[in-house]
TrEMBL record:
It comes from Rhynchospora pubera. It is a multi-pass membrane protein. It holds the Pfam family Sugar_tr. Keywords: Membrane, Transmembrane, Transmembrane helix, Transport. This is Major facilitator superfamily protein.
Amino acid sequence: MTTTKELLGATIIVGLTKTALILVPMFLSDRVGRRPLLLSSTAGMAGSLIMLGLGLQMVDDFVIAPTWIVAVCIMAVLSYVGFFSAGLGPVTMAYSSETIPLKLRAQGMGLAIAVNRLVCGVVAMTFISIYEEISIPCTFYMYAVIIGFTFVFVYFCLPETRGKSLEEIEVLFGKK
């Protein structure tokens, strides 16, 4: 994508994807639960990042990338954004607010949001330096591994909170 029109179109498509898929957790978090949304989201994000890494690796083999490889890369980005919007993005905040004890909820959510913003800033500020050192495809593979660790963390450390009262959740997390 080289023209302003193409870049604007891509930005609009990403925005529409995010907006449409944010509806998934809105309607499903109380039906299927937070944990399945987090697990499917992280698995989908990891797969999308691997697909993007493979696509970008193939792009390096060509002077002018074939349209189908560009399409794979675009679909990988949209898939990543979609999986994030359908789970990890919104469900993390809901899950955090449920699991922090009431007497510490305001401070805990403030800290959670601050750490979230800090980590996002670190990722944004280090992306170019990282890909210059290890290549763009390897950078996305590295991010896929990190998301893989997130999947493992959710699987082993986060119990389901659907259908439980805040008091029950506090007892559930108080045991650990």
